[in-house]
């Protein structure tokens, strides 16, 4: 089940979706997707939650059903939009989960509004490895994002051609536990235009604007003062052996505040399948349940008026 609600934000409305079949009254969890992704990356996680939480997933401004929202982009803008989601839903505090770029956005929100956060779950993102002085962040972004940036320049004759492109992506080509329909729904939600000129809804200007914050993006996670967990994929963005979040960096982050932070590596998954494959989604769902059981207490609804 997918229900849509439109959240008023600066410049228009932020498309936000309730994913899964959680019963009325289930604890709400706000989930923020990655840099060129969309809300449908959370479908497997919503299913793995088995009704234990209601997953509420916005399309970030500049992407998918929110792609008409104008600049500014960046972590500050995404934090303001997330605050608008909580206010619109009447949530005084919430568990927030973010994947990839979404983890940095969630960390920024928690740093700006700790009183609105019950706990955060960072999924293969949130920390930035030290960058040598004088290195261009855009060059690093281009190297790290690689195929994701290249995809934004491509056009496709039909939706099926875009489905095939994703099936052949190194992250999914050998991923037996990704539900085929999930990948189709993810791809279709991203497409804009008309055949034979279909393309991704995400503009390069959006990605490059976000990449301009690369040097500062990881700072909020280092200062988090709310319960937090970092889940790390064993493999990288193209199923390579280089994880997005190096184990030593993750351990140092957790060790800096052991009473508030924990980290775990999920074996056998890459950056994408950590949320879109069954094994990874199960690990994320269990971490969400842990966050809901944190000592901070249950979700608090804001009183009307």
Structure description:
The chain is an alpha/beta fold and 305 residues long. The protein has a domain at 2-128 and 216-301: Rossmann fold. It is built from 13 helices and eleven strands. The chain has helices spanning 43-48, 75-89, 101-112, 137-145, 147-151, 159-168, 180-190, 204-211, 214-217, 219-222, 247-255, 273-276, 278-292, and strands at 2-9, 12-19, 28-32, 54-58, 91-99, 117-123, 191-192, 199-200, 228-233, 261-266, 300-301. The strands form two sheets. Strands 1, 2, 3, 4, 5, 6, 9, 10 and 11 form a nine-stranded mixed sheet that branches. It has a two-stranded antiparallel ribbon with strand order 7-8. β9 (228-233), α11 (247-255) and β10 form a beta-alpha-beta unit. α2 packs across α3 and α6 (159-168) packs across α7 (180-190). The radius of gyration is 18 Å and the shape is globular. The two termini are 31 Å apart. 49% of the residues are buried.
**Number of distinct helices:** 13
Helix and strand composition category: alpha/beta
Please identify, by name, the CATH architecture of the domain at 2-128 and 216-301.
3-Layer(aba) Sandwich
SSE arrangement, N to C: EEEHEHEHEHHHHEEHHHEHEHHE
Give the overall silhouette.
Answer: globular
Beta-strand residue fraction? 15-25%
The percent of residues in helical segments reads: 25-40%
Oligomer: single chain
Going by CATH, the homologous superfamily of the domain at 2-128 and 216-301 would be Alpha/Beta hydrolase fold, catalytic domain
């Amino acid at each position: 089940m997918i229900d849509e609600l439109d959240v008023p934000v600066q410049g228009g409305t932020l498309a936000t979706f309730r994913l899964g079949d959680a019963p009325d009254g289930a604890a709400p969890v706000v989930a923020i997707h990655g840099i060129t992704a969309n809300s449908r990356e959370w479908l497997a996680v919503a299913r793995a939650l088995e009704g234990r939480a209601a997953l509420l997933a916005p399309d970030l401004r500049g992407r998918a059903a929110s792609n008409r929202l104008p600049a500014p982009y960046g972590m500050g803008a995404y934090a303001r939009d997330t605050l608008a989601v909580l206010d619109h839903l009447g949530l005084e505090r919430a568990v927030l989960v973010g994947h990839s770029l979404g983890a940095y956005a969630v960390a920024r929100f928690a740093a700006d509004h700790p009183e609105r956060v019950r706990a955060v779950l960072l999924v293969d993102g949130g920390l930035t490895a030290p960058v040598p002085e004088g290195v261009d962040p855009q060059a690093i972004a281009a190297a790290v994002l690689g195929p994701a940036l290249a995809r934004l320049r491509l056009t496709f004759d039909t939706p099926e051609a875009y489905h095939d492109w994703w099936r052949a992506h190194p992250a999914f080509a050998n991923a037996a536990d990704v539900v085929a329909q999930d990948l189709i729904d993810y791809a279709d939600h991203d497409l804009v235009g008309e055949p034979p000129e279909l393309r991704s809804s995400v503009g390069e200007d959006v990605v490059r604007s976000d990449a301009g914050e690369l040097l500062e993006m990881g700072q909020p996670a280092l200062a988090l003062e709310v319960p937090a967990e970092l889940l790390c994929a064993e493999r990288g963005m193209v199923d390579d052996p280089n994880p997005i979040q190096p184990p030593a960096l993750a351990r140092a982050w957790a060790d800096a505040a052991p009473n508030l932070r924990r980290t775990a590596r999920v074996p056998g998954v890459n950056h994408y399948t950590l949320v879109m494959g069954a094994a990874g989604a199960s690990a994320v769902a269990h971490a969400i349940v842990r966050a809901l059981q944190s000592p901070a207490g249950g979700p608090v609804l804001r009183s009307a008026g």
